[in-house]
Design goal:
Length: 522
Amino acid sequence: MSQRNPLLRNKWWRLTHLYKILDKEGSLVTFKPSRIQLMILRALGPRLRARILKYRQGGVTTLFCILYLDDALWTPGFSAAIIAHERETLDKIFEIVDRAYANLPDSIKPKTSRDTLRMLHFEQTFDGQLLDSEIYVALKLRGGTVQAMHVTERAYIEGDKSRELEAGSKQAVPMSGRITEETTANGYNEYYDSFTEDFSNPSDNPLDYLALFFAWHEDPQYRLPGPPLERTGADIALDELVFGAYGYHLDDDQIRWYNWKEKELIKAARASDDKVGLDGKQLMRQEYPSTMREAFQSGQGNVFDSFILDNYVAPKAIRVVESKKVQGEKIYIYKEVEPGKFYGQGCDPSDGNADPAGIAVWDANYEKAAEWSGLLRPDKLALLNQEIAEMYNEAFVGVENNMLSTVLFLSQTYYNIFSTVTIDKRHNTRTKKIGWTTTGKSRDVMIDDFVMHFEDGSLIGLTEKTLKEMQTFVRKEGGKREHATGKHDDMLFADMIAVQMIKNKDRSKTKTVVFADKPAGF
């Protein structure tokens, strides 16, 4: 490195004097780390892995673009990749890197080649020393090893792309390399599990992920000056939320800014044709969360009210029963059977492989009595349904017939099963279909019913497993309501079907059936 300017040897001096960025007004200014960016740098220290959950426009991606560009400019053989979550943001992110490089003084610019789009390859330092380093922006790693990787909006990389990132791109970073990722929350999806596990179980190991969360009110720019504010009930509640989590109060200028931004997002939500279903207040909590919990409570259009979920206290099982018909299976009892009482039982079956099945029992007062979940082949799942139903006054059982074999096996040994009869007036025929049939219409009905009962407080005894599945039950693109990527909803749908059995209890039968021979294997 040149001896002409010894300050160039100082990384902190370079980070605060050399690089140009656009500020929020669009003016070209010298990069100076903000309060939040400084907090990140101090927290990182020697750490090599970090997850950063934050509010919108916190400047985290800008920080790492500048940080890794600096490494590439002054460290021979260094390679860095910025991984974007969507194609539309690639150019915007690369512009941060390219602008900082382009506005360096000509006297210290390295010899540079651009072999591919959105990539800077540095061949030599300005004084002729070999550099051979690079930084690029892409949707995934382009191959080879990189010493630093930053991932933007990590919570929005899901499914196959998430698996490729974890098993592919991240594996190209050596143990001595650094991986950072930043994101706003995206509901209770798979990223929620990763982040909260690291946040709740901090480790001093530099190879373990450091989890950092930054709320909007930690940023001094989010203020709107004005006269003393006459606080509303909502203002007071917001202040109490922050005080409870952080131990300090919001001032009037912060609350005034919050109210202005929330109104802006409410208008934006009304004007949007987005079918995911976030309203303005949910958008505010997602984009500018006041607490870590609030960050996850919105996002991706949660079907069930997150604040009701958050305050719902799940009961503990009063006992666990070992199944007598299916060895090794445990039935969780939350309420003992009452003689003469009606019970509805729902079953969301599986093929016995990767997708779990669920069984739920509810009484006529919409109180949950028992549950089971796990992986069972259809014949054994039918046996377990029978056993649980017989425990609860021969409950009225609805088994979703998408896996027809389970309900067919059950019908050989149990009588009180939901079924429908279709009448063809033209041909004067009647067709009986055993089991609960989930169509587009019936699916919407049972979801709407469950949401209605949940919000009016009439569902009693929702269990921990059901509540977790309700947290990750979301509206996806196109408006379909289902589990978030990487999550399940087997117990939730078993509960929903059980509620439908209660609503259809007039179809419940009495024991007057002579069973056919049991199928092989029973």
